[in-house]
Amino acid sequence: MSENLKPEIITAMSDEELRRRMDTLEWKINQERRKQRDSKYLEVDFCYLYRELEFRRLRSQVHAEYIRNLSSHSSGRPPKSTGKFHRTPIAAH
């Protein structure tokens, strides 16, 4: 990871800034490949940015589902289940 893309810097970037940096890196990677030069250091930076955007997208989805379930529960209806998390009943001894 390059000096200007440390984790604390990446997490402070806006989604738009992450996308702009990814576009720039993609362009630079293609330039390096055309010149038959090593682009792995750029690819690593690109992956860190991509991972941050993906993490944010997934966190947003989970939060939206939580809010939907919370809203359903507060209206007297049971929470909607996605089937992802199931508690196994504990057998009585």
Mean pLDDT: 84
What is the assembly state of the chains in this entry? single chain
The structure class reads mainly alpha
Biggest sheet architecture:
none
How many distinct domains? 1
Number of strands: 0
Stretches where pLDDT falls below 50 for ≥5 residues? Answer: none
User: H/E element string?
Assistant: HHH
User: Considering DSSP H and I runs of 4 or more, what fraction of the residues is helical?
Assistant: 55-70%
How big a fraction of the residues is strand?
Answer: under 5%
Total count of helical runs of at least 4 residues: 3
Shape: elongated
- CA distance, first residue to last residue: 54 Å
Radius of gyration: 21 Å
Question: Describe it for me?
Answer:
By secondary structure, this protein is mainly alpha-helical. It has one domain. The protein has 3 helices and no strands. Helix 2 packs antiparallel against helix 3.
Provide tags for this entry.
3 helices; elongated; mainly alpha; 66% helix; 93 residues
Please summarize what this structure is.
66% of the residues lie in helices and 0% in strands. It has helices at residues 7-12, 15-34, 40-74.
Explain the layout of strands and helices.
Blueprint: H1 7-12, H2 15-34, H3 40-74
Helix pairs in contact: 2-3
